[in-house]
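Please fill in the sequence for the structure shown.

STRUCTURE ENCODING:
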């Protein structure tokens, strides 16, 4: 994977306003000097708890705990990788990126990509206008109306019509300044002997957008009997910006609801996505001219936070009730081990797809279809059993042997006995018969190397280093003082005496998490470095030196309002407040050292007179130091 040079990442962050980026998604209001607040985009809430501190370039939600810098925000809100987030902001900020060892990323340069995306935007507008205005588009309008969609519905999804003339879109793009090479590369036209010609002609078209909302391709449906291309659906070919194995139609509209509800509904067609969303199933998406595969799984896992150790998300597949639908369901089941989520299958009783179901039964019928989905395992077993004649002994034996590997492959071993009993009832055989075949299948599978597609995911207990830090208990006055001190060290480092702060050892902090934060402050160069950096630069530096498990805490401390009266003129806490925080933490440190020394003295052998005397002198010195500190605090 290409690694962007650190100095370029820092430049992107420096030239990007976190306030401007967040305001694209969140309505912010003032929440005190240098602080903004709004409703969190990552979870539902009625009272705003999402806080942004532009001066330090960080955000934190005190409701769900989400937090970080502007790059983290873009990653989370648009479900991008770190490199993709940097590249997106770099393009907006006009920063040229350089990669370690000159290794360029395997994607199009931002300028070329932007031109191709813009070409698709222009084409999408032309298609949408054509659907509404062109007389020849009446067939398309009638088709959509017969599917149950109004003009308003089509506008929401950007549905359009590709004119039958061979160069309408090509000529329009030329008039907008696009070259023939760009038009062909975009996939909107194909190269003929006499020049480029429109790829989509006389079809209803749906814009296919990537997760960020950029249109990167189109799906086109045949509506005229004399269409020389007999394929019912025609999709954009592979282009520099369109990879059919990873894009999902409707993902730009569904991603927020998916992340919120941790649910995805995978349907088979563009009209099914429309029907689901209009019926209130906002998590529906569809593949674009290809089977649901590994890259689609990776995309959805990132949005659903499909991780071992979390409460499982829910992925629901809807399939037609015919043989093709069953075959598609079994392909999906073959990849089931790639999910930590629970997979389900929804098939209407009469085999209708969601669009047909909505037309006949209304919105409630679509919602009930999703709500009544059965576990993928159950569907796979019933589909497998259905191939055999259970009225014969031979059919039952073959059915048992066919479903045994499915049961043996269940990840949760505790569920196997229950499924064995259930399946034995479906087959009309004894529990012992099914259990024996499952045992045989499990033994056979254990002797065969496990392929990546069937690899068992590790349970949380198998993951090394899973011990989590206890959260700081702010009800403890000492811990609360540590909390305030670290807030001020991160937000107002110039208010402190460097020597006094440097005298505080990380081990002095009562809360283990705060020990790690103070260690990060020291590793980042301490206050002498902080005063030479901007607020954002200081927070970024501390975050870079912090252990991964406390980086969110660094962000929280950098954003949380300090519980002190701020000076009206400077917007800063008073120096007396910060001095008292330092002294209070130092006092706790001294008290602990005195207690430790006294305990050691009490455990010493009487024969260790010299060591006892030295330790007694040390205790006296610590007690004098404590007395001096107390006098300073009065």
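FILLED IN BY: designer on duty
SEQUENCE:
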């Amino acid at each position: 994977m290409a690694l962007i040079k650190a100095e370029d990442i820092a430049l992107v962050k420096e030239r990007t306003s976190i306030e401007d980026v967040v305001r694209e998604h969140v309505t912010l209001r003032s929440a005190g000097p240098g602080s903004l607040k709004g409703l969190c985009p990552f979870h539902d809430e009625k009272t705003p708890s999402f806080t942004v501190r532009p001066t330090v370039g960080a955000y934190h939600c005190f409701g769900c705990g989400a937090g970080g810098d502007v790059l983290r925000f873009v990653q989370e809100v648009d479900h991008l990788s770190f490199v993709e987030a940097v590249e997106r902001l770099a393009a907006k900020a006009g920063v040229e990126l350089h990669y370690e060892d000159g290794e360029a990323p395997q994607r199009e340069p931002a300028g070329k990509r932007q031109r191709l995306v813009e070409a698709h935007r222009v084409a999408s507008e032309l298609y949408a206008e054509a659907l509404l205005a062109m007389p020849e588009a009446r067939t398309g309008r009638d088709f959509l109306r017969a599917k149950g969609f109004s003009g308003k519905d089509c506008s929401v999804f950007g549905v359009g019509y590709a004119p039958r003339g061979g160069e309408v879109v090509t000529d329009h793009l030329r008039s907008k300044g696009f070259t023939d090479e760009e038009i062909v590369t975009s996939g909107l036209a194909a190269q003929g002997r006499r020049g480029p010609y429109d790829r989509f002609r006389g079809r209803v078209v749906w814009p296919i957008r990537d997760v960020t909302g950029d249109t990167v391709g189109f799906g086109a449906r045949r509506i005229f009997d004399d269409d020389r291309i007999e394929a019912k659906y025609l999709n954009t070919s592979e282009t520099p910006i369109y990879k059919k194995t990873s894009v999902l139609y409707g993902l730009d509209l569904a991603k927020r609801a998916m992340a919120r509800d941790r649910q995805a509904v995978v349907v088979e067609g563009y009209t099914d996505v429309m029907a689901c969303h209009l019926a209130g199933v906002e998590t529906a998406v569809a593949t674009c001219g290809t089977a649901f595969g590994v890259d689609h799984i990776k995309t959805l896992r990132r949005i659903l936070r499909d991780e071992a150790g979390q409460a499982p998300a829910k992925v629901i597949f809807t399939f037609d009730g015919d043989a093709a639908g069953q075959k598609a369901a079994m392909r999906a089941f073959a990849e089931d081990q790639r999910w930590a989520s629970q997979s389900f299958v929804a098939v209407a009783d009469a085999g209708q797809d969601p669009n047909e179901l909505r037309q006949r039964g209304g919105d409630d019928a679509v919602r009930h279809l999703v709500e009544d989905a059965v576990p993928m395992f159950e569907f796979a077993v019933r589909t497998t059993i259905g191939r055999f004649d259970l009225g014969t002994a031979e059919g039952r034996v073959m059915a048992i042997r066919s479903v045994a590997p499915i049961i043996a492959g269940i990840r949760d071993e505790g569920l196997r006995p229950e499924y064995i009993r259930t399946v034995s009832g479906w087959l009309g055989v004894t529990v012992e018969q099914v259990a024996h075949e499952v045992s045989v299948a499990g033994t056979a599978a254990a002797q065969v190397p496990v392929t990546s597609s069937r690899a068992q995911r590790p349970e949380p207990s198998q993951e090394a280093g899973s011990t989590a830090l206890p959260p700081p208990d702010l009800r403890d006055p000492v811990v609360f003082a540590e909390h305030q001190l670290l807030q001020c060290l991160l937000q107002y480092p110039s208010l402190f005496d460097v020597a006094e702060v440097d005298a505080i050892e990380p081990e002095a902090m009562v809360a283990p998490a705060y020990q790690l934060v103070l260690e990060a402050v020291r590793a980042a160069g301490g206050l002498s470095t902080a005063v030479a950096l901007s607020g954002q630069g200081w927070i970024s530096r501390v975050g870079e030196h912090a252990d991964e498990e406390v980086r969110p805490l660094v962000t929280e401390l950098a954003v949380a309002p300090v519980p002190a009266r701020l000076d009206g003129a400077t917007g800063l806490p008073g120096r007396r407040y910060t001095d008292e925080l330092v002294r209070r933490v130092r006092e706790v440190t001294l008290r602990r050292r005195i207690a430790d020394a006294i305990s050691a003295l009490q455990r010493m052998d009487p024969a260790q007179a010299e060591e006892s005397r030295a330790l007694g002198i040390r205790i006296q010195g610590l007690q004098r130091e404590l007395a001096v500190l107390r006098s300073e605090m009065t």
